[in-house]
Specification:
The protein is mostly helical. It is built from 4 helices and no strands. It is about 75% helix and about 0% strand. About 15% of the residues are buried.
Length: about 110
């Protein structure tokens, strides 16, 4: 259970970092998120808190169940597409961990599915 909670916290932190990066670069914010990005961040954290699959999944993009509302799903997709490639420059350790975990998950899905 502790491992799941740590994983949940790590995921929430990574998503928040990606949203913050997006907001800084696209909306030219400094210290705080714009209202739209703050709403997306709060929504993403809430969805992560309620995720029943946290123990077995790596990232929401790998999940079979899409629990985001369609408009929020599109917003987070735009944020991820923008921030993902830039994370290596802003948070290199987290970015490398993300790539490794994604590859492991893909291999696991190929073997199981």
């Amino acid at each position: 259970m502790k491992n799941t909670e740590s994983k949940r916290n790590r995921e929430k932190k990574m998503v928040s970092e990606m949203i913050a990066l997006y907001c800084r670069k696209q909306h030219h914010t400094k210290e705080t998120l714009c209202p739209e990005c703050a709403e997306l961040d709060q929504y993403a954290r809430m969805r992560s808190d309620k995720c029943p699959f946290m123990e077995t999944k790596t990232f929401c993009s790998n999940c079979k169940v899409h629990c985001y509302k369609p408009d929020m799903r599109e917003k987070i997709r735009v944020v991820m597409r923008f921030s993902g490639p830039r994370m290596i420059f802003h948070h290199p350790v987290a970015a490398v961990r993300h790539v490794i975990e994604t590859k492991k998950e893909k291999r696991r899905m190929d073997v199981c599915g």
